[in-house]
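Incident log, structure service

09:12 report received: a user says their structure output differs between two submissions of the same chain.
09:20 pulled the input from the user's history:
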Amino acid sequence: MGNVRRFASINTKIRALEGRLLSKDDYRNLIAAGSVREIADYLKDNTAYFKVLRDADTYTLQVDQLELLLKKYIVGQYEKLIHHFTDEYRKLFKILFIRYEIEDLKLYLRAINRGEDLGSVKELIVYSGSYSTVDYEALSDSKGLQELVDNLEDTIYYNALKAYVSEDSQRRMFYMSMSLDRLYFKLLSEQIEKLSKEDRNILRELLGKNVDLLNLQWIYRGLKFYKLTPEELVNYTLHYGYYLNYKRIKELCYTKNEDELISKMIDSKYGFLFDNRDTLEIFMERRIERYLYFLFLDYKKREKMNIIESVVFMHLMEYEMRDIISIVEAVRYGMDREATKKFLVRKI
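09:34 re-ran on a clean worker, output below:
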């Protein structure tokens, strides 16, 4: 099937859905709100999020509950879009769902680490829809980590987790989380290779640059905060980078400290991550997200009948959700409006 035929219908639908994304005025009104309740009320009364907020009591709504509803809204939009795809493209979008399933699994792993009741985690699950492969009832009834992992035996997650069951509890969560993340990027990269040449080239670049930036963030934090060995750093870096191949990543993992890492990267294409020491840790994640945000928008301007419309829309929804939560947190802590804007992915 040619790309024009494959994407004509879905791209028309996506352009209509893009009209429901928040405007700059919406952002300004949310930033001007005085409480979490005012933010929830605004979203409920003035935006497409009313679909998941209409039954919510905004007087008692907590931040984590709001975030859960926003994520469920995004998942609902994904599920509507996936019906427009067939064959390898449908498989790709099913893999994109795995991000949410992995985040749900991490909730269970954290609950076990903290000795919390697994039954209560079920209420926090973002995705348990028709494309899920996880039996959340069984996970919630698990009597410990071994049983939880055993209950994942028929899923893609089992092999990624089973090797770490006997690890020390302080390191176990870290190892399992990294293993799940690596699994996701591996599956995504492998599926990208099964698409048309045009779409394959687009997604290789987008995924590769995302991987580059995540690896740099990981190496920096591993050197500065966790004091990990070079071998540990190498073992948990992601593959499939765009500019930073395995040889270059390994070299960066063997730097003596974060200062040496910065000196090696400051004049590179990713030097923007490290060019302000005073705000490096505070804004590193936001800089990564903003870089990718504008990369997506740039691709959207250049490309037409290919996969980019769908991929960009999905990420715009995610960035918007993250911005809403950032605004909520800023309001909770009494941050002024100009300071709040600095923490947003979207420039206002």
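09:41 both user submissions now match this output. Likely a transient worker issue. Closing.
09:42 reviewer note: The chain has 17 helices and no strands. Residues 197-226 form the longest helix (30 residues).
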